[in-house]
Amino acid sequence: MQPAVLQGLRVVDLTRIVAGPYTTRMLADFGAEVIKVQSAKMATGIESNTAPYFCAWNRNKRSITLDMDHHEAREIFLKLVEISDIVVENFSPRVMSNWDLGYATLKKSNERLIMLSMSGTGQKGPWKDFVAYGPTLQSLAGLTYLTSYSQEAPMGFGYAYADMVSGLYGAISILAALEHRDRCGQGQYIDLSEYETTCTTIGPALIDAGFNHHQIVPKGNDAANRPAAPYGCYKCSGGDRWCVIAVFTEDEWQSLCGLLGNPAWSKANQFSSLAGRIRHKEILDGHMAEWTAGQTAEKLVDDLQQAGIAAAVVQNAEDLANDPQLAASNFFTSLNHPVLGEIKTDTYPVRFKNGRPAAWKASPMLGEANQYVFEELLGMKKATIQSYIEQGIIA
Amino acid sequence: MELSAKRYGFLDGLRILDLADEKASFCTKLLADMGARVIKVEQPGGDASRNIGPFFKTTSRLKTSIPFFYSNTNKLSITLDLEQDEGKSLFLKLVPYTDVIVETFDPGDLKRMGLDFKALNRHNPKLILASVTGFGQNGPRRNFKTSDMIASAYGGQMYVCGSASAPPLKSCDDQPYYAASLFATTAILLAWRNRANTGTGEHIDISLQASVTATLEHVMLRYFAEDIIFRRQQSLHWNGGFVVLPCKDGFMHVSLFQKWQTLIEWLSTEGMAEDLADEKWLDEDYRRQHLGHVITVLKKWTRTHTIDEIFELAQLMRFPWAPVRSPNEVLHSPQLKARQFFMEQEYAASGKRKTVRYPGSPYKTSSKIAARINPAPTPGEHNEMIYRRELGLSEKNLKRLYDRNVI
Questions:
Q1: B6, pLDDT greater than 70
Q2: Average pLDDT of chain A?
Q3: What distance in Å separates residue B80's CA from the closest CA in chain A?
Q4: HEC profile for A25-52?
Q5: By 3-state DSSP, what share of chain B in percent is helix, strand and coil, each rounded to 5?
């Protein structure tokens, strides 16, 4: 595959924080020209161009500055939309219409435009103005409740998973709309709800609750849908080191007993069938924990996998950074940032057999593409640009 | 306009053979829901993923898997034994009429069956093959066994979820399969576009582990930028900015640092701010250092309220707060109802018809394209249609294949 398969597409990017920028990052990774519209007023905190958070989600993009509160900035923006293919925004629903830059307006500048609005709960409905971050959405959609040891103490994710899921759906919706446009010439407006994207990842639990009329409870680390025992997360030697083990079949159980050295307890009648092992899982887990506690997670898991048993090391950030499996596909790469120097970052995680690695760039500095966009693309005069800068329009 | 009215979705015309089990059925479901024609190729008797619970509770002895139902809407199904030579050659007859194959065999299995990318390419040089496996096609762990929990652990998700005083916690409900399916969908659409430009096919390699690691949001970037190995800290999110607090009738996920003065005014009007109204608490760093006390005071306040008393009022003041909802409660969300998010299908259970509600598309589009709403197929439901009408097999031939258990 050509690394720049999306070359020739221009994206106007009004997104902030993570879900939206993650969508446009995928487009930029594959060669689309993504022009991020920033302003000095807004580019602060984690949206500052030298914040690691900003750098992570905005690689391969260009940056221009426009203070949209100025009428002239709006006019320039519309000119840019005219020569672009895609607009992506993740403001609260009222923001674009307050600027009179809703889809109906943008469409007048560009009939073939694809516009994606990503918001917490969608552009319509009684909750449309609700403020939603990753943790909010995960709680609202049922993921926090379900990712818990018990109903009494909700835990949830230690990160904004909902934003990543939403970012992926954003990219899917745009790629599908492009496919449609290529064949029918039709532009598109897409109203994406991050609440709904998050709900799609627990579809079976929602169906189960509705159809079977019973209260769904969090399953913690228990084998949820496929009977297994031993099954769970076990402490290994060293500090906060853990492994997971999943034994489904009789063959796997026999292999495990072999690894354990066929201790007397493993021959007990109560463990002679999967049903028995599940019934007495607390006792079984006690034996397992005793066995795992004295060994390193890495050695243990290698032995288990060699014996044909599903097992894994519970890897932390440092493990991942040094993981030979991820390294084998060059999962992490380094980019050279004009101010921060070398930045390590993950790549798009999929590999293409016939694909060459693309030449990637670090995230842009504020307004680094002002000259390119305003002068080269839009043909504005140097003097006009200078005057707009002085008036705080290009700022 | 005329043209789009006749189409079933943005991807109408895309032809897919689905050899995926639970790891990537959701990918082909997304493509099918968007209009692609997806034929699920199942072993005679049905795919093993049909045995994964939970199941629809009916009086029938036939168990119907809910995850299978959800991840296979709008697909067709044929049965075929790929291990038999006749099954293989029948499969290869379908390949020229296929744009994309999605498969989840262990690395090397397709080659052993003589159906690897190279072999398939001979039958269709423009074919896109998407392979979803635990660890990818290469690397030291490529032959390791996998499952959702294995991918969660190796991918880095488990270590950062749960409580520091308890074991790392697995994400709910097969999240690695959803993450990998979403990535696979983007990759297929990219390869499809590339094919339109260049006329060449592609073999796409998707790893469950890498898909999990790629969705860790702050975890890796903070390690690279600040040398922080993030550890699980219950509901406190990455920066202690959020926490789950108990109400009279459930739990609320509340933010701790936003609009502090508004929050304290709110508590003060109810006489519950305690010392948090003191000036020193205006300093965000001070609050972070004494997070425990902030949480203690807030908890006393939330305990005096129901979720309804707090939720909408907080949102009116633009606090990003939300109740911790169970799937049962999500079904009654007024927002999801207003947006008609849930799809409905009649499900025939031992004579009685009941309605199944399931999540629909999470986005609305301006092109009003007719949505297809077909239930997940039964095993081999479309054998007749595909083998007889499309491949032109004779009735006699088809019967012979049935008898030999090829289909």
A1: no
A2: 96
A3: 25
A4: HHHHHCCCEEEEEECCCCCCHHHCCCCH
A5: 40, 15, 40
A339 reaches B (C-beta below 8 A): no
Domain with residue B279: its CATH number is: 3.30.1540.10
B231 domain-assigned: no
- The per-residue pLDDT for B351 is 67
CA A21, CA A109: separation in Å to the nearest integer? 24
Find the DSSP H helices in B199-255.
208-213, 218-226
Give the count of domains, chain A. Answer: 2
pLDDT band at B369 (very low <50, low <70, confident <90, very high): confident
**Chain A, chain B: beta-carbon pairs less than 8 Å apart:** 478
Under 8 Å between Cβ of B123 and B92: yes
Stretch A351-376: mean pLDDT: 93
| CA dist., res. A103 & res. A117, Å (int) | 9
Cα B135–chain centre separation: 18
Cβ-Cβ contacts under 8 Å for B44 (sequence gap 6 or more): B79, B80, B81, B379, B380, B405, B406, B407
Report the SS3 class of residue A90: coil
> Could you give the CA distance from residue A298 to residue A247 in angstroms, rounded to a whole number?
18
Q: What percent of chain B has pLDDT over 90?
A: 89
B209-262: pLDDT as tens digits: 999 999 999 999 999 999 999 999 999 988 878 999 999 999 999 998 889 999
The parent domain of residue A60 ranges over 10-201+334-390
Nearest CA to CA, how far is B13 from chain A (Å)?
11
Q: What mean pLDDT, rounded, does chain B reach?
A: 94
The reply to whether residue B230 touches residue A158, judged by beta carbons under 8 angstroms, is: yes
**Structure token pair of residue B72:** 């296979």
- Choosing from B264, B294, B325, the residue where a domain stops is B325
Instruction: Over range A350-376, report the average pLDDT.
Output: 93
What would the pLDDT profile of A264-319 be if each residue is shown by its tens digit? Answer: 999 999 999 999 999 999 999 999 999 999 999 999 999 999 999 999 999 999 99
Angstrom CA distances, A311 to A125, A248, A299, stand at 45, 11, 11
Exposure class string for A146-160: b at 16+ Cβ within 10 A, else e: bbbbeeeebbbbbbb
Rounded alpha-carbon distances, angstroms, from residue A239 to A158, A294, A296: 20, 12, 10
pLDDT tens per residue across span A56-79: 999 999 999 999 999 999 999 999
A195 touches chain B (CB under 8 A): yes
CA distance B323 to B245: 9
Subunit contact B175:A244, Cβ cutoff 8 A: no
- Give the minimum alpha-carbon distance from B128 to chain A in angstroms, rounded to a whole number: 10
B38 DSSP β-pair partners: B16, B75
Residue ranges making up the domain that contains B56: 2-215+342-403
pLDDT for residue B349: 65
Are residue B135 and residue B95 in the same domain, yes or no? yes
**CB–CB contact B218 A321 (8 Å):** no
CB pair distance less than 8 Å for A127 and B315:
yes
- Using alpha carbons, select from B333, B306, B213, B61 the residue that is nearest to residue A329: B213
pLDDT at B5: 40
Q: Are B94 and B76 in contact (CB under 8 A)?
A: no
Flag whether pLDDT at B4 surpasses 60: no
Evaluate whether ipTM surpasses 0.85.
Answer: yes
- Is B350 a residue whose pLDDT tops 80? no
Per-position b or e across A346-360, b if 16+ CB within 10 A of its CB = bbbbbbbeebeebeb
CA dist B398 and B143 (Å) reads 37
Cis peptide before A218 (omega within 30 of 0): no
Is B221 a member of any domain?
no
